[in-house]
Write a structure and sequence with these properties.
heterodimer, A: alpha+beta, 7 helices, globular, B: alpha+beta, rod-shaped
Chain lengths: 378, 743
């Protein structure tokens, strides 16, 4: 397995003189791009043209990870040429979040289960309800790990896209299935957020739209907590993700990120479902814990790996983390790299959500987490 | 001092490397922007941190307050104990539940146990240990002792909690005072027991839908609980009560909250039975009715007993016909109806001809059978609305109501019924094995608005019945006013007779008795009534009446007393001292139980010689009970009292008996004396009587001797004593004594 990672920045251009000569049917090209490349897709097109046989996955971000660095207005690229594994690419379009379940179901149906060892998914971040997409992907056998992320539009929540056919496309989901006994996909996901304040009941919601908590408008609660910073909604809302669980006996907490607000409805739109009668708590970042979370996810992903083989690590962090960490954002990428085997190459994105199995078993949709997926052949 | 990692990273980002040349102005500008941005972020972060902490604290505080209020309102206390560390906490809400005692204790599991009643403590500890072992919650009730008071009951909900090492070492939970609930439970248990009493009970909601019945109810009604619950009590109705009855019942319940009374209900098997029903409304504190409770006792037995008593009181046990009392009651109603409506009616008095003979000859049981059949036939002759009553013996009365609007119509109708009765009662009767005939005599009287006196009407019917008897029996007679007049006269006479006794209007007249030489031997004392207005009244007129109404007894005593006084007076006089005095004794007087004593006492009181007193008896008096008569006569005879048998020859005296009587004299009836001179038969009878008397050693006196010829004939027949107009008619004492003095 050969790995090559490089970047593109508007000024200096490509960080490599020539694109590595690794194009093949067994090559995976991963591109994490700043959202503005939608209007200026030339570098992407150029790159894709260089890898005509390869399977290409890519999407817009709220921060491109390349090694420990987190950049804006860049492309972070990884080329992986597998030697003993084969890849199957599939994609589908989604017109609205309602199509999400069907999209997941379709992708699952397009990936033969025989020999399937892992799936990596990149999806539009605004046209998709991550929870529904993950439910649809539930048709993939549970022993096959499914990871991935949702595209982002910085903190603007306007337009997200994935790369398809060598150019940015809105309203699409793409996936690659990995086959072969030597292929190993590992994953780890940790949040590092702390719930605080009283636990509230979701008294009115519909799918990923939250109207009321304890019978009061949810938007008003957020505005009260944000105070002077309320004008920064919806992105300011990312500072207070929601921790939800089914009931007081349920110890499985899911984190939900705000994607938008509806002033008229006094509602909040989240990246995943916020079912009625679930219990919800506001969450707050704790710098140290966020970084600890990243470290934990790195550690988790390192179970059952061969530390001597080349390894690609793909981080799918969340825009909320980026916003909270701010100038400190690289604390988490640096810390993560420390816990990955020497020589591991890291790319990734800050997106609108991540897909990863909760701890064991089938995949789940996550917000505000740092998710790490590693690819290896041994 | 090494530079801050962030600053180093920011420096790297602007392209400056540690140890390299100083940053260019552009790099400076970029660095300052990054630093400024980091400050802004830090400010915002601090702002949000402070704000969220403040808001969350406030919210949490509010929740705590709400929770604490809710627990206070609910009467809950909460607590948590660490069994390993031996510490814990309890909320203020625990204090009123455990009592002030617990304020002196440091909250711990041990202290908690100390608050629990010793008897319940072990049970609690066992449950806690189990909960800690299994990780399951539990609820438990226990008592908390309270000084000088009854124990308080507490409900605890206990939840095991694991510590940070996932070991179950803590328990937390709530306590609640349930003393009142326990009391209610006890009350309910008592009520439930009471509900299952012997009395039938039913509970309905306000719409009357049955919610619950007890076992006694199912037994009494025949329905199972499943069959009645959800239905209304209307299913039990017997249709014996009209809507007004139920309306009144509910009016009472709504007004007073309860009703009780007799109700006839229908058993599942269709039988109708009486019960004593009490309905009570169950009300809330605000007076709203929530339920109705009905309790019933089966009063069939009582009703049966009542009916029996009623039957005994109002019905003739032999024929089951109404008796006199009930007849009077019905008659009263009939008269009231007649007065109101103008519809006239009739009373028929029915007597069976020759019933006494039948009874005597065939026996009472056959007589009773006849009466029962007569009753049956009478009922078949009248409408259901009419009344057939039995007054006693063979006397029946039929009350016919609503016969017509005027006398003619009423009489026609009554006569038709009367004739129908005569026909029906005259058919042959089969009495056991005996076939016999009987006929009735019926007296009828009519009543209208003007004739309303019950006693009078019955009397009238009775009189009419006697008229029917007189008319030859087996017939119907209507009452007519002339009959009434004689009855009235008789009644008046009776009143006057009483007055006569009180005012001593009676006198004794004396008729001399002589021997063949005209020598006076004695006299017969005869009572006379000298009415102050009407003058002397014949004994034939008033003696039968006195016999009937019993006045004959005081009159007889008066005669005895007066006679004794007279004898006493005569004893003082040589001319009269040897005279005897004969008195007529009535049957009633003679058959008095204490007659002997009375006579003896009277004789003694007046101190007369009993041998001068002669009591005259008639043959009919002796026949009644011959043995008793003989005893009585012997007793008096022993006292020295003499006896004469009056009207001899007119009766059917048995010579066998005559022989046994202590008689001193036979008195030949004047009917034989009257024609002795011309009728040979009379003469023969007189001869026989005298011969018989002589043979028995008894004197003979002839009464009604009016002519010398008669006297001669009697002398020729060896009669030695005489009495009659030939010698003197009965005269007052003064005249009698004057007569004697004249010689």
């Amino acid at each position: 397995m050969l790995i090559s990672t490089f970047t593109f920045h508007a000024g200096p251009g490509w960080s490599v003189d020539t694109f590595p000569d690794m194009d093949s049917e067994q090559t995976l090209l991963l591109i994490f791009a700043a959202p503005e490349f939608f209007d200026n897709p030339a570098p992407i097109t150029t790159l894709c043209n260089a890898y005509p046989k390869s399977k290409i996955l890519g999407c817009s971000t709220a921060g491109e990870i390349a090694g420990s660095q987190v950049s804006d207005a860049s492309l972070s690229v990884a080329v992986v040429k597998f030697e003993q594994s084969s890849l199957v690419f599939t994609s589908t379009t989604v017109a609205s979040p309602e199509d999400s379940y069907a999209a997941g179901e379709y992708l699952a149906s397009q990936l033969p289960t025989d020999g399937l060892r892992g799936v990596f998914v990149l999806a539009d971040g605004l046209k998709i309800n991550g929870s529904q997409l993950v439910s649809g992907l539930g048709h993939i056998p549970t022993h096959v790990p499914v990871t991935g992320g949702l595209a982002a539009d910085g903190a603007n929540f306007q337009r997200t896209w994935v790369i398809h056919g060598g150019k940015p496309v809105i309203g699409m989901v793409t996936a690659v299935g990995f086959y072969g006994e030597k292929f190993h996909l590992t994953h780890g996901a940790r949040g590092g957020w702390e719930a605080f304040g009283p636990e509230r009941k979701i008294t009115r919601s519909k799918n990923n739209i939250l109207y009321e908590l304890d019978g009061k408008p949810a938007l008003a609660l957020y505005k009260e907590y944000l105070g002077d910073l309320a004008s920064g909604l919806p992105s300011a809302g990312l500072k207070f993700p929601l921790s939800i669980r089914e009931g007081s006996d349920d110890h499985k907490y899911l984190i939900r990120t705000i994607l938008g607000v509806d002033e008229e409805q006094q509602s909040l739109i989240f990246a995943g479902d916020v079912p009625e009668n679930f219990l919800a708590k506001l969450m707050r970042a704790n710098f140290d814990k966020l970084v600890d979370g990243a470290i934990e996810s790195a550690k988790l992903s390192q179970q059952n790996v061969d530390t001597h083989s080349p390894m690609l690590a793909v981080a799918a962090s969340c825009v909320g983390r980026r916003l909270v960490l701010g100038e400190h954002v690289e604390d988490e990428t640096e810390a993560m790299l420390k816990y990955l085997p020497e020589g591991t190459q890291l790319v990734g994105l800050y997106g609108y959500g991540g897909i990863s199995p909760y701890s064991t078993g089938s995949c789940d949709f996550h917000n505000q987490t740092m998710m790490l997926t590693t690819f290896e052949e041994f | 001092m090494p530079l801050h990692a962030l600053l180093l990273r920011q420096l790297r980002k602007i392209g400056w490397n540690e140890g390299g040349p100083p940053p260019s102005p552009e790099q400076w500008q970029a660095l300052l922007q990054r630093v400024s941005h980091a400050y802004t972020e830090a400010d915002q972060e601090r702002y949000l941190l402070n704000r969220s902490q403040e808001l969350a604290s406030r919210e949490t505080e509010e929740i705590c307050l709400r929770l604490s209020d809710a627990q206070r309102i609910a009467g809950l206390g909460n607590w948590m104990f660490d069994l390993q560390l031996g510490n814990g906490q309890w909320s203020d809400g625990c204090i009123p539940i455990f009592g002030s005692f617990c304020t002196s204790l440091k909250p711990s599991y041990a202290a908690f146990l100390e608050c629990i009643h010793p008897v319940d403590r072990k049970k609690f500890v066992t449950a806690v240990n189990l909960a800690l072992a299994t990780g399951t919650s539990f609820e438990i009730e226990f008592r908390v002792p309270e000084k000088n008071k009854t124990n308080r009951w507490v409900l605890a909900k206990v939840h095991p909690v694991s510590d940070s090492h996932r070991a179950l070492t803590r328990i937390q939970g709530t306590v609640m005072d349930i003393t009142q609930r326990k009391q209610i439970e006890t009350d309910l248990s008592i009520a439930a027991t009471a509900f299952e009493s012997q009395e039938s009970m039913m509970i309905t909601d306000t719409r009357g839908v049955i919610l619950r019945v007890n076992h006694a109810f199912t037994e009494a009604s025949g329905y199972t609980a499943e069959e009645v619950v959800g239905k209304t009590p209307a299913m039990l109705r017997s249709e014996r009560h009209d809507p007004a009855f139920y309306a009144a019942m509910w009016e009472s319940i709504n007004r007073t909250g309860s009703w009780h009374g007799e109700v006839w209900n229908r058993h599942k098997n269709g039988e109708i039975f009486p019960k004593w029903l009490t309905i009570s409304a169950v009300k809330r504190d605000d007076g709203t009715v929530t339920h109705y409770v009905g309790s019933h006792i089966d009063i069939s037995e009582r009703k049966n007993a009542e009916e029996k008593i009623n039957n005994l009181a109002f019905y003739d046990p032999l024929t089951h016909l109404p008796n006199r009392r009930l007849l009077y009651d019905r008659l009263e109603h009939a008269l009231a109806y007649c007065a109101r409506s103008g519809r006239e009616g009739a009373l028929l008095f029915i007597d069976l001809d020759n019933f006494k003979t039948l009874n005597d000859t065939l026996g009472h049981s056959i007589g009773d059978l006849l009466l029962q059949q007569v009753a049956h036939r009478l009922l078949s002759c009248v409408r259901e609305s009419d009344t057939v009553a039995r007054l006693g013996g063979d006397e029946f009365v039929v009350l016919l109501e609503d016969l017509g609007g005027h006398a003619t119509e009423t009489a026609t109708q009554a006569e038709a019924v009367g004739e129908k009765i005569i026909t029906a009662l005259s058919q042959p009767y089969q009495l056991a094995t005996i076939k016999c005939h009987s006929t009735p005599s019926i007296g009828a009287t009519l009543f209208d608005r003007n004739h309303q006196q019950m006693d009078r009407l019955l009397k009238q019917a009775d009189i009419a019945m006697y008229q029917a008897k007189k008319a030859g029996r087996h017939t119907l007679r209507f009452f007519n006013p002339k009959m009434q007049e004689s009855v009235d006269a008789r009644a008046a006479l009776e009143d006057e007779l009483r007055t006569a006794l009180d005012q001593q209007q009676f006198q004794l007249y004396y008729q001399i008795q002589v021997d063949s030489a005209h020598r006076p031997l004695g006299a017969e004392a005869l009572i006379r009534w000298i009415h102050p207005e009407r003058g002397p009244i014949s004994p034939a007129q008033f003696i039968p009446l006195a016999e009937e109404n019993g006045l004959i007894l005081p009159i007889g005593q008066w005669v005895l007393d007066t006679a004794c006084i007279q004898l006493k007076a005569w004893e003082q006089h040589p001319l009269t001292c040897d005279l005897t005095l004969s008195l007529n004794v009535s049957a009633k007087q003679f058959h008095q139980a204490d007659f002997v004593t009375r006579v003896h006492e009277t004789v003694q009181r007046h101190g007369i010689n009993p041998a001068r007193l002669k009591l005259e008896l008639t043959e009919s008096m002796l026949a009644a009970d011959i043995e008793e008569t003989i005893d009585c006569m012997n007793a008096l005879n022993k006292l020295g009292i003499m006896f004469s048998l009056d009207d001899f020859g007119t009766g059917y005296s048995s010579l066998q008996y005559l022989k046994r009587l202590p008689l001193n004299q036979l008195k030949i009836d004047q009917s034989f004396v009257k024609d002795i001179a011309i009728d040979r038969d009379d003469k023969a009878i007189v001869n026989t009587i005298i011969a018989m008397a002589n043979s028995m050693g008894i004197d003979v006196i002839a009464e009604g001797v009016e002519t010398e010829e008669q006297r001669q004939q009697l002398i020729s027949s060896n009669c030695t004593y005489f009495q009659g107009y030939l010698f003197s008619k009965p005269i007052p004492i003064e005249l009698f004594e004057a007569y004697l003095s004249k010689g």
